[in-house]
Amino acid sequence: MKIIADFATACVAISLTYYVAAALAAIRFTLRAALPAPPLPETVPRVAVLKPLHGLTQSLRDQIISYFKLDYPRVDYYFGVSDGTDRAAQVPLELHQLYPQRPMEMVVGGEPGCANRKVAKLIKMSDLAKHADLFVMSDADIAVDRDHLRRLVGELAADNKLGVISCIYRALPSGPIASRLEALAVNTDFAPMVMLSAAIEPVRFALGATVAIKRATLDAIGGFRAIRDMLADDYYIGKLAADRGWDVALSSSIVTTITHERTFADFWNHQLRWARTYRTTRPLSLATILIHGLFWALVLLVASGASAFSIKALVLVLVARLTMSALMLRYVLGAPELTRDICLIPLKDLCMTGIWFASLLSNEVQWAGRRLEILGDGTLREVDG
Questions:
Q1: Residues whose CB falls within 8 Å of the CB of residue 49, separated by 6 or more in sequence, listed in order
Q2: Quick check: is 385 in a domain?
Q3: What is the pLDDT of residue 360?
Q4: What's the total number of domains in the chain?
Q5: 381: in domain
Q6: What is the per-residue pLDDT for 385?
Q7: Number of CB atoms found within 10 A of residue 294's CB
Q8: What integer pLDDT is reported at residue 375 of this predicted model?
Q9: What is the pLDDT of residue 384?
Q10: Under a CB-based contact definition with an 8 Å cutoff, are residues 378 and 232 in contact?
Q11: Are residues 200 and 329 in the same domain?
Q12: Is the CA virtual torsion 129, 135, 138, 143 positive or negative?
């Protein structure tokens, strides 16, 4: 038991170090985001906003409106659905009546033979955007601020070597406890980890919530067809661009998503898909188990027979964890109303530890009603039955 207690003590120390480092990286990011957006170039690039849609949600209308309200002069909108029965297609078509000045096309269907149906739609949309200088892809459930495109374009235009930028996102829950757990996972696990990663090593990934890429960069990686069979399409856009000598970065623009998980199973399956995706694309992500501070503090508590030291360690982990989470919610992501869910952090953290272990058992994931297997090279295979 002493060996277990010693190892757990080391992991508690690693976790505490991570909480401090992540908080400092988040503060650094916040200071950068507070600066004015870089100026647009004299010749303003033409931007194609590509929005693959799938299914109708209560928030979809407001999210699309936020794009139609963007303060940017040269932008075309492309919305894509897999087939005409998808009710999501009704929303941009109806909104176009209110925003007729916004050039828009609805694309039905996608590139045949793509394992990733989202990328299948991106291929078809991008083929139509022949005059675009920049492509901005965003998930259907993303909302943006009015200056979003100005920031993205200004940041890309300011550096000739910069080929891809993507955006951190805040998650707002739709109501049920499952959606609140999902939002906490995004806001207090994913966001600080990405900020810390970007602060200590070159960025070689993109985040699918929003990815902006120059046409020259997209052409250099082989277009969207290069990622047609990849589950982590966003990750590979950044990786392929970096492999070809382009710089990749995080934008100072933060976008917003709504979490719609209705049941605990929805939350569990979504996070399990992410965990298995991380493990197959970046095996080093397995080391994140070392920063599951609450889990290791509880292991130490049991292994040491509830010693005074282990009780103090547990209290210190909880204080540090909740403080870092409150910082992220209130000041970094600008969602102070979500601090009411701080009490759910211990439950969420233990769930995430369980998901980490469950992710080791299989390479199967559930995505948009499909059962898929992630192969060793990151590509997808449909699972029968």
A1: 67, 75, 76, 77, 78, 136, 138
A2: no
A3: 92
A4: 2
A5: no
A6: 54
A7: 21
A8: 78
A9: 66
A10: yes
A11: no
A12: negative
